[in-house]
Specification:
12-stranded mixed sheet; 14 strands; 16% strand; globular
Length: 442
Amino acid sequence: MKAITPDMTTKFDKQFQANNKQQALQRAVVKNGITASAENISAHVANTPVFSIDLATGKVANQMQSGRCWMFAALNTFRHKMLNQFHLKEFELSQNYTFFWDKYEKANYFYENIIATGKEAIDSRKVAFLLTTPQQDGGQWDMIVSLFQKYGVVPKSVMPESANSSNSRDLNNYLNKLLRKDAVVLREMVAQGETLDAIEEKKEEMLESIYNFLAISLGTPPKEFDFEYRDEEQNYHLDRGLTPQIFYDKYIGVKLDDYVSVINAPTKDKPFNRSYTVEMLGNVVGGKEVKYLNVDMEIFKKLAIAQLEQGESVWFGCDVGQSSTRTSGIMALDAYSMDDLFDTDFTMTKAERLDFGESLMTHAMVLTGVDLVDGQSTKWKVENSWGEKVGKNGFFVMSDAWMDEYTYQIVVRKDLLTKEQLNAFNEEPIVLAPWDPMGALA
């Protein structure tokens, strides 16, 4: 190993001071910041919010200070359907209701993994992975399916937002403290050779504490409720005595098993046209397995376009923080001219970014439109869940090139896949490590 020498630094400094261009850039960046100095106005011109296919979706929702984008995106796809079918002007499903059951189920999932790894060393990579973040707000499509299938959904009016669902920092902090404390007890019971019945009994006591913690923090989920609303023509409707499952069947009716997750991960360890799952990734024990079909980007985009052409929005996951403008809502590779600003090259391939930890799926949103020119996509309309004050009334524009580089997952109907693709999805999946980038939670 060689240290930095004073002579080396002196040489660099002299060269910097002698470069008038760098001096001018320094003044701009020091005063205005990096991204503000590098923002490229031409990206705004090239990504105007006009699309040849543009679905009606109503107003955007707002996940506030929480990491529930995957949940909001899924519920938004249901909301689009309800707005059209029941002629509603504005409507939201309860994100807090689904949030409650996700936290409850994630606690049990954590306990089960702690028990399963109870004989492994405390510093083993799997145990360390579990204890680093026992649970968090994020999730995957198949995880939300497990919640909907087990608990149904309810209108937002029945279980509205709470302080802790809208700002989940404290809730996560103390819930993770509780889970780690319980992990000490469960691992000790395993080490002492306690029976499975005894461990299960202790786990049930812990789950009761978790339920109480969540009920105090988020409210109690309704078991039965009435649904009343006025449609766009001001006609009054009342439906009494609904359960969350009955409400889902009657007002949503989406057959969730008809949908599959498709990913684009062009790394050497993940050949295309194969199915994958991730070890220790999930929330509902006994629920739907997290599973993906990996395809090349051309097929990936064709599937998304096909679903949009049939009038149905598309849940998708991406790395939203890469080359995107939060306020104006532009997601484009040239949104910022960083290479020019620093006179360097930040370029990496999509595979390199995944392999070397530069990128992974960080956020889930909904594709609600696409602009097709001669049958080819040029830009995409994106419904975000950050409220109406970002983008254009909460909607973003994603360039086609940005989709190629930073979009990793879409959810589409099975009937859009070819027979060969469906057969590949149905194969026994290759199991990826818990820390694989495809296991990232949006």
